[in-house]
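Example with several molecule types.
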Amino acid sequence: MVDCGCESSLPRSTLARQGTSGTLKTTIPDIDTPALLIDLDRMEANLDRAASYAEAHGLSLRPHTKTHKSTLIGGMQLERGATGLTVAKVGEAEVMAGGPVPDLLVAYPVWGEGKWARLLDVAQTVPVTVALDNLEAATGLQRHARRVGVALRILVEADLGMRRCGLPPGESLIALATAIARMPPLRLEGVMFYPGHINLAAPDGEVALAKLATDLDSVLAGFKKNGLPTGVVSGGSTPTLYHSHRIPGLTEIRPGTYVFNDCTQVAMGACGWDDCAASILTTVVSTPRPNAVVIDGGSKTFTSDPLRPRGEATFGRVLELPGARFHKMNEEHGMIDLSKHDGPPARIGQRLRIVPNHVCVTVNMHERAHGIRGESVERSWPVEGRGKLQ
Amino acid sequence: MVDCGCESSLPRSTLARQGTSGTLKTTIPDIDTPALLIDLDRMEANLDRAASYAEAHGLSLRPHTKTHKSTLIGGMQLERGATGLTVAKVGEAEVMAGGPVPDLLVAYPVWGEGKWARLLDVAQTVPVTVALDNLEAATGLQRHARRVGVALRILVEADLGMRRCGLPPGESLIALATAIARMPPLRLEGVMFYPGHINLAAPDGEVALAKLATDLDSVLAGFKKNGLPTGVVSGGSTPTLYHSHRIPGLTEIRPGTYVFNDCTQVAMGACGWDDCAASILTTVVSTPRPNAVVIDGGSKTFTSDPLRPRGEATFGRVLELPGARFHKMNEEHGMIDLSKHDGPPARIGQRLRIVPNHVCVTVNMHERAHGIRGESVERSWPVEGRGKLQ
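Resulting structure tokens for the full complex:
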């Protein structure tokens, strides 16, 4: 039974049927396209596997909600033992604070009076940790934490090779941590890093992981030498998820993409095709030339994120048409080449399900997700964190 | 005076000020980031110029609303003489039908019972034309048009080199048009094409334009020979906008991007930097290494659309930092390299305005737009057509 009441994604015939009987099952053909489908069996298996791994290795699991953007799935992660949830933006923290979360990490150097005030509003309902790499953000957060009289936990962000945010191991990192340790009601808890640069399917993957472990070791030694806390050492991405126990000192992991997986995770060896729980349901709207198919979803549905790391220039895997190449997109048009597809030609009106290159940004394009088992649509839910840019 | 009441994009201090006085002017520093800014002077100049051009050349101007996705700006286009508006999706038609539009073109081969029913609902309030390239869609639309007793105007879509939707010039196109001309209450009005493949800044641009004119001529000759109507011949993109008079037989143009322009339009020679009306206001949240700046917007704010045609791998032009290279994005992080920037280093908290690569998809990531003149925020409006995938 669908719980969405979303007229724009279910044709009126279905709604009418439901309206009169209230019991008819919704199936995939009832969903209009393009639409985000989540295979619930696969998603639950992905959640279970990560939870078991974290428990077996004594790691706290704090999933990043950037992928599902939903309090419903956040709740499923918490039911399976996650100790809290991770977000990037204050707007996402506000969304997740509306769910059953006991504890939030904002893995982002939050900046600005408006955002600090909003974050401290959240921190009055749910304990909040912020990860940051600069004293300016810490000073602003301290001011607002004092104003409302709430303690705010802080992790300093180290750059262990990602070259995004974070200070490199060394004096500047220790100096920042030392300063923050003396800025009550901020409470320094430890270190955060993001190992997004590590691709264990690449030739240099193992070397990069070993270097990261060495660098983290030196950071933790510096913290201990300076009397700084190392109670929380938070790292972990989906590609490194099941290698987390190989990073000494790590206490917490923050995978996000593992909940659904995508073509990029398969290309990086982080999962198989059968672990990909998310697909976009599309319809063939034009077959203008031999072997050319146009579907009703393009960059507004999938985003134009390329296949990483440096894969073929395609935009997803077409489940129903082996060998098909989803090679080009405009905003509302997806162009699929069937010249290497063995099978009957596609027909107008045919439904095609496509596993996206990068599921996090694809989910962000959709207002609702439809959870399926086989052909049955078991439930639908809003993507509440969608588009929370601030 | 801001008319948005959007708490998430204006800090509470501003809202409080407005609440007590109701008269204080909002300025750019009052807007939280990331946020979509529209320079109203530039936008109005873009609208005026296209309207004057269309009038001078006796062309109907039917702007594609995919770029602004707003009934407010659609209204401004209509006030300046646009004969109607263009949309791609039924959901966009529903949005625009809520504005002052006299007439809508759905430039997309709409497919499916649910969408046909919704489109005919729209067609009962606003005259609708649909462009399509297949008999299957025409048959479905005919059935629904009969059901509600409304005439639906049809353009057949020709492929004049874009290789997306549309049938090539020749027998199949004539056969489709002939069939539709006998399918009341569908009413064939003429031909549509999209010249999105033409880049007049490229070496082969003029050749491609000449070929398109020749192909269109042969299509129109075929229509006339077969007694098919050519009252509407709809083409035109932003890059070809001011060359439309060079395409004999054209009666209508459908530019979209011209309202705001972007880095790609500049790269294609379709406009100058001073014609770019849209920018994303961002904040520097981290300066982790020398010459490295991280801003609070990445692919969730800009999308990862590359600079076309085949430009440098950058994601926008940083207005405040000449020479800066916006070279990498993750979802919430934008990475800017300052090694070729002459000037003081960026500081945490600094605001940077960035002209996006592809403004249509960037606008789609934002719930609201803020219209500015100089430093003043004159008005804000919802991006109502945002995310209307269906």
